[in-house]
Amino acid sequence: MAKKQPTAEDLAAELDQKSAEIRILQRVSSAINATLDLEEIYGIVLGTMDEIFGFHHSLILLLDESGETLTVVASRGYEGQTLGGQVRVGTGLIGVVAKKRRLMRLSNLGSQRGYIAAIRKQMEEAGRSSELEEAAPVPGLTNVESQIGIPLLIKDNLIGVFSVESAEQKMFSDREETLVAIVANQAASAIHNARLYRAEEQRRQELAELNETLEDRVRARTAELERANRELRDMQTQLVQTEKMASLGMLVAGVAHEINTPIGAIAANTDLVRRATEIVRQRIEKGSPAELAGDSRLRQAVETLRQASQTEQLACERVTSIVKSLRNFARLDESEEKLVDLHEGIESTLILLRHELKKGVEVVKHYGDLPQVLCFPSQLNQVFMNLLNNAISATGGKGTITITTARDGDGVVLRFADTGGGISPQNLKRIFDPGFTTKGVGVGTGLGLSICYRIIQHHRGTIEVSSEVGKGTEFTVRLPIQPH
User: What are the angstrom distances between the C-alpha of 235 and each of 242, 290, 333, 383, 460?
Assistant: First the structure.
């Protein structure tokens, strides 16, 4: 029997139907690609299947990171079933679609379920229940008869499965299969883009939270470091003061001796001036102007007074110099940075150490033309005291100390060299370590050079040492004229 040829009306109706379907698919494609909200995409896809194409039961399942399980993320037409149901890859039609990555459709599923149930019952009755695997619940209709499963693919990568079911015993037509496949492909692309966007947004949020947390941690760490720096500066200041007091304590005997000599001269002149003054008074009271002019004893008394006055003047100048040197060394009234003449600080230190130097140490000075340097004078004077004290100790009280100063670009260079016994290479490596000393137990604190190092470092400068055993040692200090 010949197949009936379609009439013109039939062809026109079919053309209208296909045109309508194409327009619908275009609208669906535009709608799902116009949003990056996953829930909205799911709603558009499932709503299109239900309201436009008449597929009332559909599921969207996405593959998890393990690649072994599919999870229901959206469904329509299933009463009493919550989202989150899972299907293992390879189990049931959905699982097989995921495994083979191709469209599959089945019908007469009720008969298949009946056949499987009968087999299970026979095995149970035969005592072979242990051989049966537990039947895993599958999301979807419990009375499904027809089903299409379409893999959601991005190129060759599976992201999930789209399933359409029917409780009617009829196979989906080729036209229906094509419609479902087209929508599924559009859905796969939109879901993939939305997931990428969601992942990017999550990364941005995590990054923002991390940045905020990092900023808090940086602020906390900065506050901690500032507190530690303050404590360190306080400790350094305390160490400098401790070392300075130790230096002053060491200088007390020598300074007392230095002051005692001019004071002794003044005291000795006191009686001499008193007696000479008495002679002058008596001669003036008893003699006439003519007699006074020729009085040799009067002239001798006047000369004695003049010499005594000169001696006392020199003694006072000596005491004033020592007191000034002490004040310059301590600089107790100067805790801020100021421009100072470094030579003045070196000279003040040498005056305080004169009682040690005059035992047999010669000081050779090669002073260059230095500008005033912005610094903490009291701290640098402590450096000069420690370096010169060590040089005197190294020479054993007999030798030469050479002080050389010069300008070097935007800074100055100070060198303190001695002709002492030198420092061994193994000790030279530890010379600036706190507590290290070569003077023996009970001599010195071992903090002098360590404090020198910290003071120079605080002034943005450097301090270096070179030494040769048997020949001597030289310390080189470099300081910027303007540290900041």
Answer: 10, 76, 20, 17, 19
Three-class SS state of 70: strand
Rounded average pLDDT over 242-254: 59
Joined tokens for residue 247: 């230096």
CA distances to 95, 191, 456 from 102, rounded to whole Å, are 11, 18, 78
Question: pTM of the full predicted structure?
Answer: 0.43
In angstroms, the CA 235 to CA 229 distance is: 10
Q: Rounded CA gap, 382 and 50, in Å?
A: 92
What is the rounded distance in angstroms from the CA atom of residue 432 to the CA atom of residue 451? 8
Residue range(s) in the chain whose domain bears CATH number 3.30.565.10? 333-484
The CATH number of the domain covering residues in 12-123+137-198: 3.30.450.40
Q: How is residue 271 written in tokens?
A: 């009686």
CB contact set of 75 (below 8 Å; sequence gap of 6+): 46, 58, 59, 60, 81, 83, 139
Outline where DSSP puts E strands in 370-436: 373-375, 399-408, 411-418
Contact 248, 325 (CB under 8 A): no
Residues 6+ away with beta carbon under 8 Å from 484 = 374, 460
Q: Name the residue among 212, 184, 201, 209 with its Cα closest to residue 94.
A: 184
CA dist 75 and 53 (Å) reads 16
- How does pLDDT run across 315-360, given as a tens digit for each residue? 677 777 667 766 666 554 455 788 999 999 899 888 888 888 888 8
Cβ(242)–Cβ(270) below 8 Å: no
Instruction: Round the average pLDDT of the chain to a whole number and report it.
Output: 79
d(Cα 476, Cα 462) in Å, to the nearest integer? 8
pLDDT band at 121 (very low <50, low <70, confident <90, very high): confident
Distance CA 372, CA 341 (A): 5
Please state the rounded mean pLDDT for residues 130-145.
64
Is the CA virtual torsion 211, 216, 219, 223 positive or negative? negative
Residues of the chain with CATH 3.30.450.40: 12-123+137-198
10 Å CB burial of residue 119 (0-12, 13-18, 19+) is exposed
Architecture of domain 333-484: 2-Layer Sandwich (3.30)
Highest-confidence range of 41-50, 132-141, 335-344, 412-421, by mean pLDDT? 412-421
